[in-house]
Amino acid sequence: MHLARPILFQEGFITLIRSAIVFCGGVALLLSGCSRQATNAAAAGKPPAFPVKVVTVQAQQVPEATEYLATLKSRNVSALQPQVEGEITKIFVHSGQRMEAGAPVLEIDPKKQEATVGTQEATYKSKLAVMEYDRADLERKKQLYAAGVIAKADLDASQAAYDAAKADAESLAAGIREQKEQLRYYMVKAPTAGVVGDIPVHVGDHVATTTLLTTLDRGGDVEAYIYVPADKSGAVRTNMPLEILDDSGKPVLRTTIFFISPLVDPTSQTLLLKARVPNMGRKFNNDQTVHSRLIWSERKAPMVPVTAVSRLSGKMFAFVVEDQGGNTVARQRLIQVGDLVGNDYVVLDGIQPGDRVITSGVQMLADGMPVVPQT
Fold it and tell me: Is the model's pTM score more than 0.70?
């Protein structure tokens, strides 16, 4: 009984030692795992590569230019005016309607003219009756003169009466033809095919030969009228490039100056220039005002988008993509810029054609920061 207690105590002590060994081994493994995690975290602490958008800079034509308002005028617009006076009774068209040549536009009351023609035709019939009587009398006088019954003076008088009656009838006939021709003008017709413009008159209005009834636009090219200050007269020349701009300032087409006025407007002290503007699809309208850019000269220079440029302490910077030790990094450069053309800056110094410029996230970049370029 006394020997059993030491044996039990010894076995318990051995079990306790084994448990301690297992616990220490677990602690060692735990410490080893924590050490590896710390090492990985330290490795993961390097700045990650930042995705950025990149464009390759190219040399482009940079204009030295001035913007002016230009007025577009069509050479194919006809102004319709009546050739007679009267009151409008019918209007057959509406603004914007496309018409064929000869189609009726409006009618001016023809009743007064019709009455005039009717009166003259009635008078003409009376003149014809007089002429016929004088003709018959002349025939009788010729027979009597041949028989020696009347004198030559009587025959001559009868001949004169007939000639006068005939001339009077012919004159009136010519007048009737003229009045009938005039009657045709009371129906105003389209001289050519085209689109009807504004119609400022209404049914019931009294119009004269100076009244504008409407306009008829045949379409086709237009001309840009540009007025430049008189002090620029020495710099303008024919074939100068002219750009027509859209609402955002981007050029939609380029043309050239073909006309320079020889005289300066004494009131505005401006010089008129003209340029032909193609008008395919009728993009432009007569008397439309547009923005234009008159180009004095052009040169090639690199250009970068405004999104690639940042300002710091009054200076301009841009980031370019460079390869460094197998890594792609962003390098900050001090640049000098010129005019803003559209959405691009003209670069005077600091960027060369072929450089890859970062255009996105420039406010989040730092010099030497790893990046992932995306075209």
Answer: no
